[in-house]
Amino acid sequence: MKIVKYQNKRIRIPVLLGPTAVGKTEIALKIAAENNWDILSCDSRQIYRHMDIGTAKPKRNQLNLVKHWMIDEILPSQQYSAYRFSEKSADIIRALAGQNKTVLICGGTGLYFRSLSEGFCNHVESDPELKNQLINRGKEQGSGALYKELSEVDPQSAMKLHQNDMQRIIRALAYFYQTGTSLLQSGSRNNVPEDMEFIVVKVDIERPELYYRINRRVEMMFSDGLYEEFRQLRENGFNSSSPGMQTLGYRELFALEEGKITKQEAVDIIQRNTRRYAKRQITWFMHQVNGIHMNCLYYEKIRNYILRRLSI
Questions:
Q1: Most buried among 12, 23, 218, 241, by the most CB within 10 A?
Q2: Is the pLDDT of residue 291 over 60?
Q3: Based on the domain organization, do 175 and 200 belong to the same domain?
């Protein structure tokens, strides 16, 4: 089906959201390949270069089949934000719309999608993964290093804080990296993309099957060389204070490297943490994002719904 866009209409963007390992990538690839669309990844871990196995990035043949955006954006040593994601993604969407090209958003990072679709306000919900990254960096580097970082990105907030006030420093940094603005700034929601309309499908599957897929995926990651990929990252100089290395599937491997746990224990821990993460994702999408729920097993229903909405 050919989707025709008119200049006087808002840009319509199909969106597939759902928990990790539910099967979003396979659905997105199939729909995009059938309709000559691009895919924009909405994943806070896939933005990191050299972290392919543990983030379940699309394989090279899949990337060759369909053009992907917002993958391999930064090094694991760099911090990223929902604000930066929303700004760059909006630019990509508008540029492709100008070429009469549809881009399909696919991912599981709820804060990233909400920052793109709704903009920001002064009251933003905390990103637990980002907060944990900053906490771990604080333990590793000390409050002084985080205070120096805050002074560079948000000097207004830094001036109000003592350099030993770790809790408030982390809060201010987390806010900045989520919104791109100072914690001291207030105001109404901004950066709302008035020229866009998001057609959201929230895909899910029965919980036992999802957990089976998660457990199986983690086992396959280790078979595919996850720990070897981790060791290569360590040899390249990335450590426990690197933001990328604090993400799920990598942070657990430091204990394995140090001999504190066995390989099987590492597998078990990552499986458990991934199941917990998936549960949080499901809760988030249920309460924080508007859209239609569909079982991931019904590909034709998902595809037909998206195509029908785009053609209206």
A1: 218
A2: yes
A3: no
Residues 84 and 42 in one domain: yes
Same domain assignment for residues 102 and 224: yes
Is the same domain home to 102 and 240? yes
Q: Write out pLDDT tens, residues 8-24.
A: 579 999 999 999 999 99
- CA 264 to chain centroid: 27
Checking if the pLDDT of 188 tops 90, the result is no
pTM of the model: 0.81
- Strand ranges (E), 148-274: 196-204
In order of 14, 160, 161, 166, 267, the CA distances from 122 in angstroms are: 28, 18, 19, 21, 39
Q: If you ran DSSP here, which 8-state letter would residue 23 be given?
A: S
∠ CA 46-52-53, rounded to 5°: 120
Sign of CA dihedral 72, 107, 225, 280: positive
Locus of tokens 């989520």: 178
- Do 106 and 27 sit in the same domain of this protein? yes
pLDDT of residue 297 exceeding 60: yes
CA dist., res. 3 & res. 35, Å (int): 9
Does the pLDDT at position 2 exceed 80?
A: no
**135: pLDDT confidence band, cut at 50, 70 and 90?**
confident
Pair 133, 112 in one domain: no
Structural domain for 256, as ranges:
11-119+196-311
- Do both 157 and 260 map to the same domain? no
Are 133 and 280 in the same domain?
Answer: no
Reading the block at residue 310, the tokens are 């785009």
Please report the sign of the dihedral spanned by the C-alpha atoms of residue 109, residue 95, residue 65, residue 60.
negative
More confident residue, 31 or 171: 31
Quote the pLDDT of residue 1: 39
